[in-house]
Design brief:
This protein has one domain. Helices cover about 40% and strands about 25% of the residues. It is built from 2 helices and 4 strands. Strands 1-2-3-4 form a 4-stranded antiparallel beta sheet. Strand 3 and strand 4 form a beta hairpin. The protein is elongated and about 100 Å long.
Length: about 140
């Protein structure tokens, strides 16, 4: 029995190179998507931590609506999970003084301030409406 030696029984070098190229592109796309997913998860954890710290700040240092004046207030507190947390509140009058409309900018930071968490929020306060609706919570000292 004779065999036909002119028939190719395997893949050519070009076919193998093309398969490796397609596999390499697919793996690159997969690992890039996985890396982006992990970055989003880390960013979400940092965002959640900053929201928790902002809420704790509101409980520890509530705004005194009776004595609401323009200016900057700084402080810090110790948190069992996040360590030392520094905060700054800047209150700016918006419009006319008789309108009692303020912009509140709150910034918190933890860690060394460079690689650590840093978050800023801004909100607006209409003093008469805030006092009527009980916008500010009572301080809570047990942490």
């Amino acid at each position: 029995m004779k065999t036909d030696l002119s028939r190719n029984n395997g893949f050519s070098l070009l076919e193998v190179l093309l398969a490796v190229l397609v596999l390499g592109i697919a793996l690159t796309v997969f690992f890039s998507a996985a890396n982006q997913g992990l970055a989003v998860v880390a960013q979400a954890k940092e965002y959640q931590a900053s929201r928790e710290l902002l809420e704790e700040l509101e409980l520890r240092e509530p705004l005194d609506l009776e004595d609401l004046d323009e200016g900057e207030i700084r402080g810090s507190f110790s948190h069992p999970e996040h360590g030392r947390v520094e905060w700054t509140r800047t209150l700016t009058l918006v419009g006319e003084e008789e309108d009692h409309f303020f912009r509140l900018k709150t910034e918190i930071s933890r860690g060394d301030g460079q690689a650590g968490l840093r978050e800023t929020t801004e909100s607006f306060i209409h003093k008469p409406s805030a006092m009527k609706s009980g916008w500010v919570k009572e301080p809570f000292d047990e942490f």
